[in-house]
Each structure stands twice: as C-alpha cells, then as structure tokens.
Amino acid sequence: MRKKIVKKPLESIKESFVVRIELNRERVEHLKDLISTGVELDPILVSEDDGELIDGRHRKAAYLELGIQDVRCEVRKFGSLPEKITEALRCNVGGALPPTHADINHTMQILLIAGQTRKLIIKMVSENIGFPPKLVANHLDEVQSNMAKSRLKKAASAVVNDGKTVHEAAFEEGVKLETLKKFLEVEDKTGDSGAASVNQVKAHLGMQFRKLQHIQGHALAKVLRELKDGLITAKQSSDVIEYVNTLTAKVNRYHDEWVSRFASHIGTAVEGAEVSKVKVRKSQVSLGNKTLGRMGVTQ
Fold first, then answer.
1. What is the 3-state secondary structure (H, E, C) of 193-211?
2. Residue 242 and residue 91: Cα distance in Å, rounded?
C-alpha cells in the first residue's frame, strides 16, 4: 500500500504517550548533524485521526532544536490507543536505536494502564512485533510485580503519613487487606500488635521534626550573622525570636489538643503528659533567652 506523506507543522503533532523512558542525546545530535548537511530523514509517523506522534521522537527533537517547523510526515490510520502504542514499540524495535529492557517494561506498563488485559498484550506484541510470547510474559511479570509493590507502598504511606485506616488504604489502592497488614506488620507473629506501625510513625515524626529544627537553625543563624554584621537591629532580631516562640506555642497548643483526645479516648489522663509539657516549655523559654543573650538582647 502506498504511504501517505504530507507536510505538517511540528506544533500540530501531539505526544500523549512515549515508549522510551528518555531521549538519547547522542542520537538527537547525530540527527541534527545529518539534517544540517542536507540529509533528508525518513518521515515522522503520525496518526491520521488526531495527529498523535507514533514514531520519530528523536527526529522531532532534532527538528525543533534546529528551528525547523514544517516536516514530512507519514499519516496512517489506527484503530485504538493500544494499537498506536504497539506500533510505536514495533518501530523502535526495528529502528536504528533499539529499545532497552526498561523501555519495553515501560511500554508494557502503559498498555496495562490503557486497560489492556495481560492475555491481549501478549497476543498483540508477539504477533505485531515478533517477540516470543514467553518473553512478553516475562516483561509483564516484572512490570505487574513492580506495579503491585508500588500500590502496596502507596497504601502503606497513606496509613503512616496520611492517617488512613488500613481498610481504607487497602480499598483505595486495590491491594489485599492481609497483604497490607503484613507489610505494615500491624499484626506480627510475636503478638506485639501494632508495634511496627508505631515505630514507623515515630520514625516519620522524628524525621519531620529534625527537618524543622534544621530549617529553624538555618534561619536563626542567618539572623544572627546579619545582627553581627550590623545589617539588622537588636529589636528586629528580638522580633524574630518572639515569632519563633509564638510558633512554638501554637505547636504546644496543638499537641495539648491531641493529648486531650487520646486521654478522652482511653478514659484516663495520659501518664506524665502535663509534666512533659511543663518541661518542654521551660526548655523552650530557656533556649529563647540564651539565643537573645548571644545576640546581645535583654528582656
């Protein structure tokens, strides 16, 4: 069948999917050299119905970088998105720069996301590209395993970081409840139920508070340097410390609210909570006074 070749502006060519994880810069530079010396490249393959780019991403990148707007395109009809994706992979397999293992896995993943069944993907790819069905199945095994792990990790993050219940997270991410529980070690074999998830929450909170301390320390160190250099006044530096004290007080009030919620839930006061709050506040006031003292500010 005779190919339909037309001139199209690059800006009219759409890219809603890619079958390569990234462009190869050496390939783009080589194509630019060829174009600059007068070599006419093969036409870019696009779909007739919507101008979707099927094959020729490196060529398109080379044209764009050279400022060329109108390029030769082969226009062809495609029946569906999976058909376009499969043809794009076929063109890459038979092209000058074959796809990597990761590129093929990426293509399998976008076919799955596009709603294709495992059986149909194996049939389409093996028939249209020539890959042995077993090879396609191996790629799908790897991709589906990675996708399942990703969903599991996302569900676990929703429990640990976003306050979702295990049931909610499992349902929203489409993972098995028992698998998620095991991953979080909510019910471990030692009978120490919930210990692992509590440790995960503590570890996350510890990391976030350390980040906050780093940010606060960096900001106060900057203020102190500017005070020593005479760029700000003692009153301005004192205002910064007072603002930090105000923010800390808000954190304490928020913490008090949570202590009350826990106490109300279990029907008793949280042991040592009040003592702990007093110690924290005294420590913060002392730290604030010491910082002001270093700046030469007295209250």
1. CCHHHHHHHHHHHHHHHHH
2. 65
Q: What is the DSSP letter of 5?
A: E
Structure tokens at 193: 């139920």
Counting the structural domains of the chain, the total is 3
Question: What's the one-letter identity of residue 45?
Answer: L
Q: What is the extent of the structural domain holding 256?
A: 196-294
Structure tokens at 7: 């001139």
- Pick from 182, 2, 180, 159: which is nearest to 76 by CA? 2
pLDDT in tens, 151-187: 999 999 888 888 889 999 999 999 999 999 888 875 4
Amino acid identity, residue 227? L
Q: What is the pLDDT of residues 71-97, one digit of tens each?
A: 999 999 999 999 999 999 999 998 788
Give the separation between CA 21 and CA 183, rounded to whole angstroms: 30
Residue with tokens 């001139």: 7
Instruction: For residue 101, give both structure tokens.
Output: 């293992």
Residue 110 lies in a domain: no
Q: Residue 126 domain-assigned?
A: no
Q: How far apart are CA 299 and CA 289, in angstroms?
A: 8
16 shares a domain with 90: yes
* Ramachandran quadrant class, 5 (left: phi over 0; alpha: psi -120 to 50; beta: rest): beta
Q: Are 43 and 113 in contact (CB under 8 A)?
A: no
Q: Strand pairing partners for 73?
A: 6, 44
Task: Kindly state whether residue 18 falls inside one of the protein's structural domains.
Answer: yes
Domain membership of residue 111 (yes or no) is no
The one-letter code for the residue type at 84 is K
User: Within a 13 Å sphere around the CA of 42, how many CA atoms are in the beta-carbon half?
Assistant: 12
Put simply, whether the predicted model's pTM sits higher than 0.70 gets the answer no
